[in-house]
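Researcher: First entry.
Model:
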Amino acid sequence: MVVLGTIALSSCSRPYLFMRTINEEESRYVRFQARYGEGQDGVALKFAHPVALGELEWAHLLDNIIIQEQQKLLALGGTRSAPRPAFGVDEKRYLAKHLAEGFQKARPDEWVVFYLSHPREPGVVEIDSGGFFIDGERLHLIVANYRQPVSMAFIREQIWNDPLRPAGDSFYDVIPQSYQVLQTVRRKDLTQSLLKQVPELSIDYSAQLNDDVNGDGEAVGSSIEDRLRILKRLRDRDLISEEQFRMKQARLLERL
């Protein structure tokens, strides 16, 4: 009876999800998702959307999202692998393109969510899913599932329909970098559980982009031409002053 009652209460508190598609393919998508109802814990979400960030800027931000496998994944006596970018080249290109498009159109009550599926072995896929939102001057990323192994079709369907809801235990840690703060939070509106926790990465995205073009902090895979474009966008959106723009531009041009 207690179990049945818990399930009933969980179902009652489940939010109503409203989806709009930005891009959808067979094994991946980027969408808008609005969540309404009691499952939102009575809080009306008001994000700082829309926001104009270009593909290059999103690529830089995604480069700086770093993960590392947890110790429990390793056999006794094994060594932990080095931290690495969470997204591969193709994933980063896909997400950067559609996050740039999505955040320019997102409403203040909409997450921008993603789903990425990777074949692992016959009958098994690994799934990444989660969502981004911008609150004030900070970009937030909820990592609901990362390299989550799934063999059952109904579990894949659940994640496809609600990418912010974790499907099981996490096997990877998010490693915060400069201008990032990581907290592990209980999000009842996402997990439908008072116990389940999900990692939330908060990023001072303006400072990170500014640092990526100042000549001191190298952005992975960026050229001087790319940095000059980002620098101009930061100036045009008043994220840096004209004096900062000219100083950083001169420093970059000296390296040509």
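Researcher: Second entry.
Model:
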Amino acid sequence: MSRFLSGRYAGFEAYTPGEQPQDRKYIKLNTNESPFPPAEKVTLAAAEESKNLNLYSDPECTLLRKAAAGVFGVEPEYILPVNGSDEILNMAFMAFCGKDAPIAYPEISYGFYSVLAGLHGIPAIELPLRSDFTIDHRDYVGLHQNIVIANPNAPTGLCLTLEQVQEIVESNPDNVVIIDEAYVDFGGKSAVRLVSRYHNLLVTRTFSKSHSLAGARLGFGIADPELIADINIIKYSTNPYNVNRMTSAAGVAALDENDYYLTNCGIIARNREYTAQRLREKGFYVTDSKANFLFVKNDVISGGALYSALRDRGILVRHFSNKLMDDFVRISIGTREQMDALLEAVSNILNS
């Protein structure tokens, strides 16, 4: 650190993204990317729009909002396109939280929540999971605090029911409830249908996982227009042209090709169940994930050792140093061939 860094960031721990190593070719099962390429129409749309990169993008994302509205089943004014769902989370924390407006979230969840709370000086209320890693939704009912919950949760992959989400939102009418649906297309139930009923509900979505656009950085906030207007204050004060031309064009095309992506999500879900069963047969504890990853452990090898042994064999998974989940690794779901390569490597490791 230089001597110029503001003192308020002294000792601050930034978010650690998943590895993107360049030293060799790996089977990447560590960052929950889709193993499938974008639809051809998507890449063609992005290439065509690249001819206009000398011009700013539309700050209102008019065409993208209209296309998203058709897929999500809401009016365009309920939708705010963003530069990946991390941006909508950041802007929502800034808009609705503060020193006197804490944010509550599960103790084991997406690591960005605690980072954002620390970055903005927001008091955080971290609620423990049950022993089986499920969220007890009753911990959030009538909490009277701002809340953010990933559903399915990360890195466990476990879901709340839509009825449980509704109870949380309904019982905290004077606070904003953020439901982070980064992985909902792989087996969860979306709360988007509730945004027109509850003015305090913000649903966040990303196209990084289910729509093969991790490299394009595209996400959405979906909420009552008054909440969207609040977040737009932050957007237009920080990054008004937040979705670039190529990403916006790719997003419109991806929404038009939604069936292609949902088919891919179905394949990934089947590969997830196949891999989970095979790992259980090898003695692993595997949560009942509804995301595009598995959260697993085996009592004969530590999470760190399994991560290292797989890396040595050219397979990347994610290991978290957090003591609450140090025994586990998170395995992204790829193609059947990739999962078979993983299973073979795991067998070799356990038998070595």
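Model: Note on the second entry: The chain has ten helices and 13 strands.
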